[in-house]
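>> received
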Amino acid sequence: MFNVILLASIGSQGGWTVALVGYSIVFAALVLLITIFTTLPKLISMKVRSELRRKGKHVTDTEEDLHIKGDETAAISMALHLYFSEMHDDESNVITISRIQRRYSPWSSKIYSIYNSPLK
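>> returned
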């Protein structure tokens, strides 16, 4: 880390070095994330298939039998979120609106909003 800061303070070459190192780190992290996100569902489906075969159930090699639709996934995840975060509080369902009497304020007065030209 200190070498990167030292290179940045040397001159114009240091700025290019820091930019190149920064862009390469971000690009490498994005490639790693893409790799993880594409292989993780495949690994999970392989594990589920192996568990189903071990239990003696017939499993085909197509992805359609293990795939869950997006709306079902969203409903399950929302239910789990509400269950674990305890957001379903008991409310009284009574709305109270009280009118507040405001005092006079010069900010709302019309006489101060007229533009008066200064005397010359």
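>> The helical segments are 2-10, 12-55, 70-85.
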